[in-house]
Write a structure and sequence with these properties.
alpha+beta; 10-stranded antiparallel sheet; about 250 residues; TLDc_dom; single chain; about 30% helix; globular; TBC/LysM-associated domain containing 2
Length: about 250
Amino acid sequence: MCGPLSGDQGDTLKAGAEDSLTAHGRLGRDRRMRGLRWRYTRLPTQVEDTLSGEEGNEEEEEEEAAPDPAAAPEDPMVPQLTEASQVLSASDIRQLSFHFPPRVTGHPWSLVFCTSRDGFSLQSLYRQMEGCSGPVLLALRDQDGQIFGAFSSSAIQLSKGFYGTGETFLFSFSPQLKVFKWTGSNSFFVKGDLDLLMMGSGSGRFGLWLDGDLFHGGSSPCATFNNEVLARREQFCVQELEAWLLS
């Protein structure tokens, strides 16, 4: 039989039991924590949530802002032609359209005269213009492939003197478009003789002229438009000429 424990022995056993219980408690807690580790999932921070939301909004805005190519409206500055031009490209026509007076915008172009169809004759050009009153665009291509011409505020016609208004201008693609508008120094816009068509004048020189066969022509700087030589040389030969009625 065992006798009663002394006071010191009791205290020692009690302390040992408490230490054992404490150790067992820590061991159990560690095991539980190890069992819970597989459930841990990293949660996004508030900053990441904000950035993610902004990226999503940007993607939605980009999708909403993307235009539908099929729904794009037609350019109101591009006129409708009754037939294809053999002198001017679509880009040339569009660029020229920005320089026309507002009264011309939106009107279709009608090919009144062209040398490939009506022949090289100034008289034929006058005949084709009979009865026309609207503004006219003359477009030429010479033997060097240079494209140039003039916008007349009224139809080309036989006349005893110069006629027209300050809307008249000369132009040249060399290769970029250059437009020479009225300077206000004189009113020598257009004059039609039997064997000579003149546009712009001053000091005995013409901004653009064409002879009776519409095959030979020339261009010089003149006071009316303060223009450069429209072709590569002051005298040229016409390869193709078109007259478009813009009304």
